[in-house]
Amino acid sequence: MSFRKILFWIHLIVGCVMGLVVLMMSFTGVLLTYEHQMIAWAERGYHSAPPSPDAERLPLAGLMAKVADSGEPPSTVTWEADPTAPVTVSWGRSKTLYVNAYTGEVVGEGEEGVRNFFREVTAWHRWFAAEGEGRAFWKGVTGASNLGFLFLIVSGMYLWLPKKWTSQSVRAVAWFRGGLAGKARDFNWHNVFGIWCAVPLFFIVATATFFSYQWPTKWLYQAVEGAAPPPRGGPGGGRPEEPPQIDPAAFAGVDALLAKVEQANPGWETIALATPRKLEGPVSFTVSSGGRGRPDLRKEVELDRESGAVVKTSGFADQSPGRRARTWVRWIHTGEVGGWIGQTIAGVASFAGVMLVWTGMMLSWRRFTAWRARRA
To answer: Which residues of 222-253 are buried (b: 16+ CB within 10 A; e: fewer)?
Structure first.
């Protein structure tokens, strides 16, 4: 038996065993393509024009007084360069308020219907939306199926190419052909989707392994640094269980520091303040000059509260090679590294995954029924 035939049968068996899980992950990947653009569109009503051309933002202390919460204090406050955008006040992932930057009025808590939809789709994408002990099991299933899908893509890169390079055989797999039905149509679609989407699918699926297992991160660090990655959580052992309450006086002078950060970064898009917990010590801002998928255009700046001098600046270039490489993984997986164009490519590749599973299963079923007919 030839190598191609052996590889074909392994390809077919892996596809049949893991096809339905891959189908689910690919379909939910399509739904998640423009998640953040759709959330932003749904919440576009939270934007409001300044009351006057020369209006200034409400001081931070006044804004915090408007959104005072009796429970845990907010973790971050984020401003956007767009003067009509609200200020985002976040309590981790548990709660978010959108506040008018000029009046302090709370304009909303986000479109929960849209956000819940995408949270549910993400849960299905990662672990079949299972809860409790079942989550670990289904996360293992999706992780193993993802590895199987990676094998299907790599082996498919060889199998999708024609055995003999003739004009007729190339036309059969190079592009969609009209007038086909049944096996011929499925064969044509399976090969076309595979050939044209193999490369983006490879990167999408390969980066997904980092979310299911720890060994890809170890391999990545070994490859670029020759050393193991640092332990998670750093030397401090994680976050404190009970965050300290914020002294309102801790916001004194922060507005002047924010203005200095804006002046020093004329191309900024968002500035996030890590809410200060005490009166002493530097104040930390995270400045982003690019979209979500550009960690290289993001940096952290710490300023002295009294003098306003920059105490520390740390950006993407200051990170270790291993950490820089690992940071790109998430944004390559979603395509956001390339902006909306990259997201579109990722979405098309995810749709190709749906079609590859569907046409592959149909081809396998036709092969099985033909075998039964011959036996009969």
So the answer is: eeeeeeebeeeeeeeeeeeeeeeebeeebbeb
